[in-house]
Each structure stands twice: as structure tokens, then as C-alpha cells.
Design goal:
Distance between the termini: 106 Å
Strand content: 25-35%
Order of helices and strands: HEEEEEEE
Structural class: alpha+beta
Number of strands: 7
Shape: elongated
CATH architecture of the largest domain: Sandwich
Strand order of the largest sheet: 4-3-6-7
Radius of gyration: 30 Å
Largest sheet: 4 strands, antiparallel
Number of domains: 2
CATH class of the largest domain: Mainly Beta
């Protein structure tokens, strides 16, 4: 009996097909691994912020508005055990429009009071909402 070998052309095609199959499998695996790792890191980040935010709490001690100077002054009392960061002020008007202001030097150390001044505030606003770096931590008040 005579055995014939495989033709070089067929062997090359089979090698290319096997290589492509392996590369598709590795590509699919790497994509899934990357997505899972990214998702886990996002969850870890959210848990880290959430655990930090469990100890963030504050009150707005006073809020005054000056029509003549178009400025608002308020005092934040950090009654939590963590520092408050990235304070953002939302000034709410009766027509549902909102002015967003970020005060300078807007961190408040735990256990301290801090005064803030916001310039160029139009009169006629109804409420003032103050948010922090923690998504669910905010206070709302009216100014005199």
C-alpha cells in the first residue's frame, strides 16, 4: 500500500484556519476578562465611596442673601467623622431654573464650621441645595 502525504496547499490552509480559530477564542476570552475586571473595579470604587460617605454628614447653620451685593453667605457645620469635599451649590428658582456654583476652597474638615460666600446670585430664588462628593449627601434650605 502506498500512502500519500497531504498537499502543502491544504496543510497551509489548515494551519491558517487553526490559527484563526485559536485567535478568535483568545480574543473573546480577553474581552470578557477585561469587561469583568472593569466591572469589579467600578464596584470596588463605588463601595469605597459609599463606605466613606457613611460617615459624611453636615448642617447648614445659617444662610443670608444680600440684594444690594447680590451675594449669598452660608455656614456649613461638618458634624460627620469624615471631611466634606467638592461642595457644589444649586440655587433653585421658581421657574425651575437652576444656577450651579462651586465655591473656592470648598472642603470642610470634620468637626469644623466653614463660611462660604457666593457672588453674582440673582434675587428671587426659592431654595439652596448643597451637594458634596457623596452622591446621596445633600442639604436644602432657604435664605433670608
Amino acid at each position: 500500500m502506498k500512502f500519500k502525504g497531504m498537499s502543502p496547499l491544504i496543510a497551509a490552509i489548515m494551519l491558517i484556519a487553526i490559527t484563526m480559530s485559536i485567535s478568535i477564542f483568545i480574543s473573546y476570552w480577553a474581552t470578557n476578562l477585561t469587561e469583568e475586571t472593569t466591572s469589579e473595579l467600578d464596584n470596588f470604587r463605588e463601595d469605597l465611596i459609599s463606605s466613606e460617605c457613611n460617615f459624611v454628614n453636615f448642617n447648614i447653620n445659617s444662610c443670608f442673601y444680600s440684594n444690594a451685593e447680590e451675594e449669598m453667605k452660608f455656614i456649613i457645620d461638618n458634624i460627620g467623622s469624615n471631611n466634606i469635599k467638592n461642595i457644589t451649590v444649586f440655587i433653585i428658582y421658581p421657574d425651575s431654573s437652576i444656577d450651579i456654583k462651586v465655591p473656592n476652597n470648598n472642603d470642610v474638615v470634620s468637626g469644623n464650621l466653614k463660611s462660604f460666600t457666593i457672588d453674582n446670585v440673582n434675587s428671587g430664588f426659592t431654595n439652596l441645595r448643597i451637594r458634596t462628593h457623596c452622591p446621596r449627601i445633600f442639604e436644602e434650605t432657604t435664605c433670608r
